[in-house]
Design a protein that fits this description.
single chain, alpha+beta, Nucleotidyltransferase, domain 5, Actin, Chain A, domain 4, 2 domains, three-stranded antiparallel beta sheet, 8 strands, globular, ATP hydrolysis activity, Hsp_70_fam, protein folding chaperone, heat shock protein binding
Length: about 200
């Protein structure tokens, strides 16, 4: 079990997160509400940059999302005050970001997209024809991504603190929160290095 700074609780047969917002103020949130908070923040950032209100949104989702997950994403958008115009698969979004939709040589192409995200690793094969994308196949590991690297680094330091100082911090939410932030900062830094030397 991953060490999380919050509890996962059952509410009406669905998982919810129990978080302490302020001292003594505990809230139970659905996954859609948490996603809506992220989308609200992104909406505010976009509005500040554009200098105008944002009402419509296209949201990227993993290619393997089922209908319930897609609907939950739309619901989160609505909670955030957005009109979700379309959901677009992340591999398609990556191909568009690299300008593959602008290739106008008239040839049909197959494109292999690797997506190592925060919590997943996905590989997709796309067919590209005249700016139209079709996901032909997708596979991956829903339990391998940046969060997993962060967790491994955290586990290492939890063991190190216990071995060197005789203190088990695995039950201390505040210490885990601080450790997680530092581990995320370290893995973010490492992921931005253009190359590294492997010690021989």
């Amino acid at each position: 079990m991953k060490l999380l700074p919050f509890k996962v609780v059952d509410k009406n047969g669905k998982p919810h997160l129990e978080v302490e917002v302020k001292a003594g103020d505990v809230r139970t949130l659905s996954p859609e509400e948490v996603s809506a908070m992220v989308l609200t923040r992104m909406k505010e950032t976009a509005e500040a940059y554009l200098g105008e209100k944002v009402r419509d949104a296209v949201i990227t989702i993993p290619a393997y999302f089922n209908d319930a997950q897609r609907q939950a994403t739309k619901d989160a958008g609505a909670i955030a005050g957005l009109n979700v115009v379309r959901l677009i698969n992340e591999p398609t979004a990556a191909a568009i970001a690299y300008g593959l939709d602008k290739v106008a040589d008239g040839k049909e192409r197959n494109v292999l997209v690797f997506d190592l995200g925060g919590g997943t690793f996905d590989v997709s094969v796309l067919a590209l024809d005249g700016g139209v994308f079709e996901v032909l196949a997708t596979n991956g590991d829903t339990h391998l991504g940046g969060e997993d690297f962060d967790q491994r680094v955290m586990d290492h330091f939890i063991r190190l603190v216990k071995r060197k100082h005789g203190v088990d911090i695995s039950g201390d939410a505040r210490a885990l929160g601080k450790l997680r932030r530092e581990c995320e900062r370290a893995t973010w830094f490492w992921s931005r290095l253009s190359m590294s030397k492997y010690p021989s």
